[in-house]
Structure formats: C-alpha cells, structure tokens
Specification:
Blueprint (H helix, E strand, L loop, with lengths): L5 H10 L12 E2 L3 H10 L8 E6 L5 H9 L2 E6 L5 H7 L6 E5 L7 H8 L6 E7 L5 H10 L4 E9 H8 L9 H9 E9 L4 E2 L6 E8 L10 H13 L5 H5 L7 H11 L13 H14 L1
Parallel strand pairs: 2-3, 2-5, 3-4, 5-6
Antiparallel strand pairs: 1-8, 6-9, 7-9
Helix pairs in contact: 2-3, 9-12, 11-12
The structure holds S-adenosylmethionine.
S-adenosylmethionine binds next to strand 1, helix 3 and strand 3.
Length: about 290
C-alpha cells in the first residue's frame, strides 16, 4: 500500500466519505521519501531496549507505517474521529501500532506514556508531521511534561524551524528559542517543499529534532523566574534589556533591575536577543535575589 500516491489517498478518502479538515491542519504527505526520512531520524537505537514512539496526528497513517517498520511499538494519537476507520484499514498489517482517538492538548501524557511504554520497559520518543495551527503549544506541552522522551522529531513550518534553531544574537532568536534550549538541543534536519503535501500549504516546512537534556544545561534558583526573565527580555524587542524587563519585574523598579543586570555581568544597554541561556540563568538568579 502506497499511502503517498494521490490516487490511493483519493480512493481511500472517497470510499470512507472523508474530506480534508482545514481546522485540524490536515496536509498529508505525498512524497514517499519524507516519511521515511522522518522515521529514520526519529527511530534512533542507542541500546537493546525496545523503542516506543508516540505519533501525533497520523492522518491516514503514512508516517505511522514507516515508524511501525522501525520501532517496537507505535501509539498514534489522532483528533479526527472520521479518520479512525481509514487508520484501521491502512494500519491493519502493522500489529505493533495502535491508534487513540483524542486531542494531544487534552491528553494526560503522563498516564498514556506510563501505560503504553514505561511500564513495558521501553525507551520512548515522539514523531509527528505537526498540525501547524498548534505547533508551539504542542512542543511546549511535550517538553514541559518532563516525561522521559529521548527525542522529539517533528515537521513544522520552515519559518518556525528557523526561529527554534536560531543562535543568540540572530534576529530570529526569541523567547521560545531560549526557553526550548533549556529543555533540549534543537537541530534542523532538512527542508520539505510545500509541494510534498496534499493539499499543498502556502509555506515550506522543515524537520527538526529536539534531543531532550537529561539534566537542564543550567542550574537556577527558580525555574519560574528563569522563564519570566526570558519572557520579559523579549517583551519589547526594540528596547534595551532593562526597559523590556520592566513589564515582568515592575516591583523591582528601574534600580533593582539595573542592579540585577550588573550583578549578572551584563551591559546595561544590551538587548534581550543577545543573551544566551547561561546569561538568562545568571540574570534570573540575580533578579530572584533582588526580589
Ligand atoms: N501524519 C500525517 C501525514 O504526515 O501525512 C498527517 C499530518 S497532518 C499535517 C496533521 C494531523 O494532525 C492531522 O491528521 C490532524 O487531524 C491531526 N491533528 C490536528 N490537531 C490535533 C490534535 N490536537 N491532537 C491530535 N491530532 C491532531
């Protein structure tokens, strides 16, 4: 079964009376190399332990089949109930795969991964061709869950991939880039042109892989203050760091903020986008102590 063939997709969807749902961000892969490459990147084996993959949004099962061929177990979570009968058919010959009809944003991932992978002694990772309308909330939910995922390999909009991989000082570097770097190392793997999807989206895509840190790369007195500092530093991008932080840390006053910036060893005129995660950690501790 070649699920990337246009005629196959149209035949299966037509037979089941299913059409593309824009509201669920449905753009299905029609280039066979892409799901293979995503699955290769997601299913890395570092030891003998069995590998479980959580897939978000299997669609009609194109990437799911490639994951099933490489992992020991695949659990695919799909919001669109109308796709369930199609997935039953397209994954009928993939016994290591199960589909759950549900919304990733409303799913208790701790309970799901414990039941499906952890209790079975499996390592686990995430793979997805993400629906673009909720890329960032999904990524933040996955990393903030602090579950023992090893990698998160996802296709996202090319512009978002650029932002997530940007180094400090780059114009694309933002609060999300710095926050994500606390949880893992982000690599951009390859670009996927819009023509590789049905229907074709307006923009190109890119596949990224986040390798989650076992321990955070910096130690801070308060994680909450770290993320508040990152948010504050980018709140008003055109302003200096001291002015931008004023929104999140108003009780400290101008002097308190200036003192914290100085005790973190940073220039008063620096802009937030130049700060590395290590800078943010020192600054967050200084702001925390000044509070
Ligand atoms: N994996 C398929 C492929 O690569 O051809 C489909 C990818 S399509 C870009 C995104 C998929 O995510 C769709 O099947 C859509 O219905 C599903 N989806 C959208 N929102 C979701 C959510 N909140 N939870 C779970 N699945 C979702």
């Amino acid at each position: 079964m070649r699920l990337t063939d246009l005629s196959t997709i149209r035949e299966i969807m037509g037979r089941h009376g299913v059409s593309f749902q824009k509201k669920f961000g449905q753009n299905f892969l029609i280039n066979p190399n892409v799901p293979e490459r995503i699955a290769d990147a997601a299913c890395i084996r570092v030891d003998e332990a069995p590998l479980g993959i959580l897939e978000i949004g299997p669609g009609i099962g194109t990437l799911t089949r490639e994951l099933s061929a490489r992992a020991d177990k695949v659990v695919a979570l799909e919001i669109d109930t109308a796709l369930m009968p199609i997935l039953e058919e397209t994954l009928a010959d993939c016994p290591n795969t199960s589909v759950i009809n549900g919304d990733i944003m409303k799913t208790d991932l701790s309970e799901l991964t414990e039941r499906e992978f952890v209790s079975k002694g499996m390592r686990m990772s995430v793979a997805a061709n993400l629906p673009y309308y909720i890329t960032t909330p999904i990524l933040m939910k996955l990393v903030e869950s602090r579950l023992s995922f090893e990698t998160i390999t996802v296709m996202i909009q090319k512009e978002v991939a650029q932002r997530l991989c940007a180094p400090a000082g780059d114009s694309e570097y933002g609060a999300i880039t710095a926050a994500l770097s606390y949880y893992g190392k982000v690599e951009r793997l390859f670009t996927v042109p819009a023509g590789c999807f049905l229907p074709a989206p307006k923009v190109d895509s890119a596949v990224i892989r986040i390798t989650l840190h076992k321990e955070p790369p910096v130690t801070v007195k308060s994680e909450e203050t770290l993320f508040k500092t990152i948010r504050g530093a980018f709140a008003q991008r055109r302003k200096t760091l001291a002015n931008s932080l004023g929104t999140e840390f108003s009780p400290l006053g101008k002097d308190g903020i200036a003192n914290a910036i100085a005790s973190a060893g940073l220039e008063p005129s620096i802009r937030g986008e130049r700060l590395t995660l290590e800078d943010f950690a020192r600054l967050a501790d200084a702001l925390y102590e000044n509070k």
